[in-house]
Amino acid sequence: MDNPGLSGALGDPDMMAAADEKAKELLEDLKKEVKAEISEIGALRKELRVTVPAKVIADHMDHNYEELRQDAQVPGFRKGHAPRRLIEKRFGHDVRASLKTAIIGQSYFAAIENNELDVLGDPLFRVETDEGVKLVDIGEALQHVELPESEDYTYTCEVEIRPTFELPELTGIEIKMPVIAISDADVNSRVERLQKMYGRYEPKPEGAAEPDDELVVDLKLIVDGQEVKKEENASLSVRPMRVDGIALTDLGQALAGVKASETRSVDCTIPDDYERADLRGKTGQFSFLVHEIKRLTPMPIEQVIEHYGCESADQLRQFVREDLEAEKDNVIERAKHEQVYDYLLKNTEFDLPEKLSSRQIDRALARRVLEAQQSGIPVDEIKARLDELRTTTQEQVGRDLRLSFILEKIAEKLELEVTDEEVNSAIAQIARRYGRRFDRIRDELQKDGRLGDLAEQIRQDKCLAQLLRDAKVVEVEPEAKTTEKKKVKKAKKAEKTEESE
User: Treating both helix axes as pointing N-terminal to C-terminal, what angle do 420-434 and 438-447 enclose, rounded to 10 degrees?
Assistant: First the structure.
């Protein structure tokens, strides 16, 4: 929500045309005259080359100047009587800047509406920068765009498209009621997580880097002998990661055992959705000059005991066990959700790209991040798991992406909405898990642009709740009882065998 993107920056075209009848007329003319050449650049991705005729731009410019002339206060002239040439000289830059924003927004919305494109998120615009041709969001694109004085205006953008598919039957899904028991291993695992949650990364001036250590490095990316990326004091972890949107599956191996002041390198392939289109598909090499090694030091158990106001390790474990027992209902719900997921995936067919884009991967993993935060999983553990998914486990990421599409479509069919109160409640849960203030967590989610992801997760959870209300739930006996029944049956069978003999 902090980064509203195209819709937030430009607004709905119909809203922008609501000022008067002339504005509505101009918008309708634009919708009729705008042209869009569309080409496939991969599964669920398209390139749009949008052209706005010069006459459309001129008509909008005339309307903007006329509106401004009516209200402008120009020394020496009565309000509404200043000459057009003087208005242009005094306010021309602001008028053209404002019109630039409106023309791009209105033409983009018109292009996708005219061509019935069901797009995901905001487009990325192709612009010329000092670094070459790049794909950027609307905010940065506007810094590089100038409307021509008397010619057609053409721009190129890339969009991702929702897949089309039919939903399966949504009522009567058979769900087996899971049986959950809290074990000593579960308690110990949670205690270890608490130690990590309240631990901290500390510098290791001596020795070599180990898996999941954090490094402070200067990095460079070389492609075709040219330096195309440089960053000082960047933070990396010793594991597979995406760096600048490029998957480095061998990064963990390349950095393992490195010491401060040493340089390591790793080869890479530039992905098909990289921001610089001229580099896509090429091979390159990252180099990393290591300045500092940091390692997570879990909080000592004694401090965790004190933090939770307990008197002993046994009392802390008892507290944790009680907390896990209280969460059991949530664990059971998640287990039922998994069965719904399996049903939906098995009975819904559509294709995904062989290579997922960075935006598609982030969309697929958004739910996992939020679920992990709501469960209080340590941040470093979340990061490590996400790095693994982003770089290596494409099958799992593809599964998550398919589910996000399916659940989104079901939620739309069920007309489910999310309130601000529900979003705030979810934020409060995360804050409680990490022992932090509500406003700090909300600010972080807003800064990272993930409030929208949280709202969508809540909507999908509502969708799952509805499916479970309409499901056919089958009780499952505890494993101990099942095992005992099998023993009894086996004994009875043995008795019958002896009798027959």
Answer: 110
For residue 215, what is the DSSP state? E
Tens of pLDDT, residue by residue over 424-474, are: 999 999 998 888 899 999 999 998 888 989 999 999 999 999 999 999 988
Name the residue among 215, 206, 253 with its Cα closest to residue 233: 215
pLDDT tens, position by position, 329-356:
888 888 899 999 999 999 999 888 767 7
What range does the domain containing 68 cover?
Answer: 5-161
Please, how many CA atoms are within 13 Å of residue 484, restricted to the half-sphere of its CB? Answer: 5
Q: Is the dihedral of CA 347, 348, 350, 356 positive or negative?
A: negative
**Which residue, 297, 321, 341, sits at the end of a domain?**
297
Tokens standing for residue 176? 């087996």
Tens digits of residue pLDDT in 22-49 = 788 888 999 999 999 999 887 788 999 9
What Cα–Cα distance (Å) separates residue 231 from each residue in 155, 216, 236, 419? 30, 11, 12, 41
Is 80 inside a domain boundary?
A: yes
Contact (CB, 8 A) for 364 and 395: no
Strands 35-42 and 214-223: unpaired
Q: What residue type is assigned to position 386 of the chain?
A: L
Is 494 inside any structural domain?
A: no
* Mean pLDDT confidence for 193-209: 90
Residues 249 and 179 in one domain: no
* Mean model confidence pLDDT for the chain: 85
Domain count across the chain: 3
Asked if residue 317 and residue 207 are part of one domain, the reply reads no
- What would the DSSP string read from start to end of 270-292? --TT-SSGGGTT-EEEEEEEEEE
CB contact at 8 A, 99 and 57: yes
List CB contacts of 300: < 8 A, sequence separation 6 or more: 195
Cβ atoms of 95 and 61 within 8 Å: the answer is yes
Nearest one of 393, 377, 398 to 240, comparing CA atoms: 393
Query: pTM of the prediction?
Result: 0.67
Nearest CA to 125 out of 85, 148, 157 is that of: 157
Between 435 and 484, where is the model more confident?
A: 435
Q: Are residues 290 and 309 in the same domain?
A: no
- How many residues would you count in the chain? 501
The CATH number of residue 390's host domain is 1.10.3120
Residues 160, 65: Cα–Cα separation, whole Å: 36
Say yes or no: 125 and 26 in one domain: yes
How many CB atoms within 10 Å of residue 324?
17
Tokens describing residue 164: 């089309």
Residue with tokens 């569309």: 38
Closest C-alpha among 285, 235, 291 to residue 265: 285
Same domain, 280 and 306: no
Same domain flag for 214 and 179: no
